[in-house]
Design goal:
Layout: E1 7-17, E2 43-46, E3 49-54, H1 56-74, H2 97-101, H3 107-113, H4 116-121, E4 130-132, E5 135-137, E6 144-153, E7 160-171, E8 174-181, H5 185-199, E9 216-227, E10 238-240, H6 242-245, H7 248-254, E11 269-271, E12 277-278, E13 282-287, H8 289-299, H9 302-309
Antiparallel strand pairs: 1-8, 1-9, 2-3, 3-5, 4-8, 5-8, 6-7, 9-13, 10-11, 12-13
Helix pairs in contact: 1-5, 5-8, 5-9
């Protein structure tokens, strides 16, 4: 399905720490430089200097884990786990989809046999539908790094022991992009639900989450595009999923339960509070923060329906 683009949402995301944030670099810098913190914020050499940044994996990982928890709450077998036992005994959580499907499976077969979260975030057999860039420091609000001292507490005596220093981001902002491509409305809703929970502080990023670190605030700007000949068939306020935009062959391979149906009753369009403007390739719209949040709130309930019927 990744051979063509049927719909795409590109989000420019601004991440601002609400509480101190620490994404640890590898190794212990204080061994070589005793004046440095024991735990240093990760850096990258960019624009001729070293600067702190958020790796895309440090955002993607917590969002995927939270999405898996959400899906397991509704239907445990639709979120696999690499450490599960394959559904034997008391657990109904399947083991890794990649291990169950096999590396030589046809892409459409691998997609059908993968769990709901793997269909969105991918595995070693099928590609992800959502991609995260690295998040770099916003020049308009430089990142402020500070040292914070913490200690381990002896659980028997209740006394402090082994103090250590952390380099945390206490202010500033990081900017990057999240791209969602060829998505069903439920997949849009699941990603949106995870992002809204991150924005609400339900999940956090980085080290020390149980200590109060890692709560962030998100600001969105987005560009939504529907491409292909089917895109112009929908009214300006309707947002269809990929199963309604895909060509007949793609629908037959990836959504066989919808094959042969011009307007599948099992699928739906989402009524959105903005208009999509026609272009040469389809329709598109630029979205401000409030519109992105509205879109996520409208789509969020739909992933529960898709998981319940194991569709697309």
């Amino acid at each position: 399905m990744h051979g063509a683009v049927f719909n795409q949402l590109v989000l420019t995301v601004r991440i601002q720490p609400e509480t101190p944030l620490l994404i640890k670099s590898g190794g212990d810098a204080s061994i070589l430089e005793p004046v440095l913190a024991d735990m240093q914020f990760v850096r990258i050499h960019r624009n001729g200097q070293e600067e702190p940044f958020l790796p895309g994996s440090s955002v993607r990982g917590p969002l995927r884990s939270h999405a898996e928890r959400l899906v397991r709450t509704v239907k445990a077998e639709q979120a696999c786990s690499p450490v599960a036992t394959g559904g034997q005994g008391v657990s109904s959580i399947p083991s890794s989809c990649a291990r169950n499907v096999g590396r030589n499976a046809d892409p459409a077969v691998a997609y059908q046999r993968s769990c709901y979260t793997c269909r969105l975030f991918g595995n070693t057999v099928i590609a992800s539908r959502v991609r995260f860039s690295d998040f770099f420091a916003d020049p308009e609000r430089p990142v402020l790094l500070q040292y914070r001292t913490s200690v381990a507490i002896d659980r028997v005596l209740g006394t402090s022991m082994n103090p250590f220093d952390m380099e945390v981001a206490s202010d500033g902002a990081f900017v990057g992009t999240i791209t969602l491509r060829n998505f069903t409305l439920g997949q849009l809703g699941l990603l949106g639900a995870a992002l809204l929970d991150l924005n609400d502080g339900i999940i956090a990023l980085g080290f020390g989450k149980s200590r109060g670190l890692g709560r962030v605030r998100l600001t969105f700007n987005g560009r939504l595009r529907l491409l292909g000949p089917r895109a112009v068939q929908f009214s300006a306020g309707d947002l269809p999923g990929v199963e309604l935009l895909a060509d007949h062959n793609t629908r037959a391979r990836y959504f066989p339960h919808l094959s042969g149906k011009a307007t599948p009753s099992e699928s739906r369009t989402l009524k959105v509070p903005f208009s999509l403007d026609r272009t040469g390739l389809g329709v598109e719209a630029s979205l401000e923060h409030d519109q992105v949040v509205q879109l996520f709130e409208l789509a969020a309930p739909l992933w529960v329906e898709e998981v319940g019927r194991r569709a697309g």
